[in-house]
Every structure is written in structure tokens, then in C-alpha cells.
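hey so i finally got around to running the thing on that chain from the lab meeting. sorry it took forever, my laptop kept dying and i had to restart like 3 times. anyway pasting the input first so we r on the same page abt which one it is
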Amino acid sequence: MFLFIGGSELIFVILFVVMFFGAEKIPEIARGLGKMMREVKNASNEIKREIKDSSNEIRKEINDSSNEVNKDVETDN
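ok and heres what got predicted. didnt touch it at all, straight out
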């Protein structure tokens, strides 16, 4: 099962694509889809990286604040 499409449905879609676009256009279409998928993957990886960097920065600020509070508490004792 590919993307919730059964075998007979997949064959129907493939036949439709061949009839509609022609066999010579299929590699061009596949390249375009591959390029689009690569761009989406790169964009999602960039978003993940930005979120991770932001969370690391926030974690560092929290640790720095916690250390500062601990030093203040130690000096008060």
C-alpha cells in the first residue's frame, strides 16, 4: 500500500499518467517532483535546525540564570 492507494488503483494512476502526459514526458515530470521533494526536505531540515538552535539558546540562558541565582543564594549564606 503506497500512500493509502491499493495496487489496482496505483496501476490505474500510472496508466492515466502515461496516457495523459505520454511516455517521453514522464522522466521530466519525475525530475521536477524529485527537485520539489528535495526542496521541501531542505526547508524542513532548516526549520528543524532553527528550532533546535533556538531551544539550545533558551536552555543556555536558563542555565546561566540558574547559575547566577545559585551564586547569589550561596553568597547570602
